[in-house]
Amino acid sequence: MTTPKDIPPIPIVDFGAFLHGNEEERADVARQIDDAFRNTGFVYLKNHGVEKEVVDKCFEWSKKFFALPMETKMLAPHPPGGSHHRGYSAPGVEKVSQHEYDADELKKLREIPDFKESFESGNPTDTSQPNIWPPDTSLPGLRPFLESFFTHCKTLTHSILSALSLALRVPSPGLSPTHSASLFQLRLLHYPAIHASELANNQTNDLNDDSKRIGRARRSRINAHSDFGTLTLLFQDRVGGLEIGAPDTPGLFRPAPPIEGTVLVNVGDLLARWSNDRWRSTVHRVGLPPAISRREGMVPDRYSIPFFATADMETVIDALPGCWDEAGNPKRYEPVTAWGYVQMRMAALYNS
Ligand SMILES: O=C(O)CCC(=O)C(=O)O
Ligand SMILES: [Fe+2]
Predict the structure, then answer these.
(1) Using an 8 Å Cβ cutoff, are 223 and 189 in contact?
(2) Residue 234 in contact with ligand 1 by CB distance below 6 A
(3) Quick check: CB of 236 below 6 Å from ligand 1?
(4) How far apart are CA 120 and CA 185, in angstroms?
(5) 221 lines ligand 1 (CB under 6 A)
(6) Which residues span the domain enclosing 282?
(7) Residue 237 CA, ligand 2 centroid: distance in Å
(8) pLDDT tens, 178-228?
(9) CB 75, CB 135: distance < 8 Å
(10) Which of 165, 285, 324, 341 could cross-link with 170 by S-S, CB 3.0 to 4.6 Å?
């Protein structure tokens, strides 16, 4: 029987060797990321160039923001529907879903709400989805900090895209020009403290049966889902509870614990498709941290900071070079624009 131990571990790659290394070192890092994306779809990057102090500061801002009274947070409300993905969402509003577009199925999924609140911001200069900020007086300094953190994440994303372009030998200028950042999204996430008995258990691997995992618990932190863009960067605090699915055994998960000084990077559905499934978009979820047993009482607050990247809306997603050939590995998907694809996924996220 497959057990969580059989799921390949997520490798830790020294990205400093790509950012500052010679040609050979850069090629080696690109190969390691390629391997990780082929095996698990996830990689930890250390020496990624976003200073620890900056990441710590972002967590501090996040804590300050979520500690504001609900009425203040609601001064920057996420608009209803999924087309303007900015601003504050109170606990219970968003429900992630895994390839689930059927209205009845979505309704069922929403009966066990994710217990989290979030604040989304995007490219400060983007006019298609303008940012929604609380008034400056509510939390002076939040906006300039998050705008600068967005830039750090954007820069790192472009460096990773360069590494991926190198791995696949995508002709110059590579993948970067398809990611002008208008659809990038910086998310602050807060999972409030909750009694362990109320939280869906991550520690049982109930094959194909989320209802057993959830048991009598009424809450999940974030249910199993895959990300729908190209790349996600994830900074997590020390609490833990994130798990990634086994590539070939649905329902089987292993922990993706926080590792000091690293950023966790994963492939989203659009990139998996673009790579003709060379790279995996792996399901992941957040529940009870491994160190906490159900009887133990309270599970502490958890904060995480994902940054979602996707390709510009007009980009045609057609199998990348190095990911297909006429002989044994034909293209598996019809070309689609990034915009068409994102719209389909966003519509499933919100009640509209
Ligand atoms: O909070 C986490 O660690 C994961 C968040 C996540 O997977 C998401 O927002 O898509
Ligand atoms: Fe995710």
Answers:
(1) no
(2) yes
(3) yes
(4) 7
(5) no
(6) 4-347
(7) 15
(8) 999 778 999 999 999 988 877 765 544 443 444 444 444 556 788 888 998
(9) yes
(10) 165
Residue 211 lies in a domain: yes
Q: What percent of the chain has pLDDT over 90?
A: 64
Q: Looking at the 3D structure of the chain, how many domains does it have?
A: 1
Q: What letter does residue 73 receive in the DSSP assignment?
A: H
Rounded to two decimals, the ipTM of the complex is: 0.99
Q: How far apart are CA 111 and CA 20, in angstroms?
A: 49
| 95 contacts: CB under 8 Å, gap ≥ 6 | 106, 109, 110, 113, 114, 223, 349
Of residues 260 and 101, more confidently modeled: 260
User: Is 352 part of a structural domain of the chain?
Assistant: no
286 lines ligand 1 (CB under 6 A): yes
**Is the pLDDT assigned to residue 94 strictly greater than 60?**
no
Which are the contacts of 207, defined by CB distance < 8 A and separation ≥ 6?
249, 250, 251, 252
Structure tokens at 141: 């300094």
Residue 179: which of 309, 268, 269 has the closest Cα?
309
Give tens-digit pLDDT for 298-347. Answer: 889 999 999 999 999 999 999 999 999 998 999 999 898 998 887 777 67
What digits encode the pLDDT tens for the residues 239-269?
999 999 988 788 888 899 999 999 999 999 9
Read off the tokens for 87: 């601003």
Q: Which of 268, 255, 286 is nearest to 157 (CA)?
A: 268
Centre of ligand 1 from the C-alpha of residue 306, in Å? 6
- 227 Cβ below 6 A of ligand 1: yes
Distant-in-sequence, close-in-space partners of 352: CB < 8 Å, separation ≥ 6: 80, 81, 82
pLDDT band at 138 (very low <50, low <70, confident <90, very high): very high
Q: pLDDT above 70 covers what percent of the chain?
A: 84
- CATH code where residue 124 lies: 2.60.120.330
Q: Which residue has the tokens 């559905």?
A: 269
Does 123 fall in a domain?
yes
**Which amino acid is it at 328?**
G
Is 301:239 a contact under the CB 8 Å cutoff? yes
Report whether pLDDT(96) > 60: no
Centroid of ligand 2 to alpha carbon of 223 (angstroms): 9
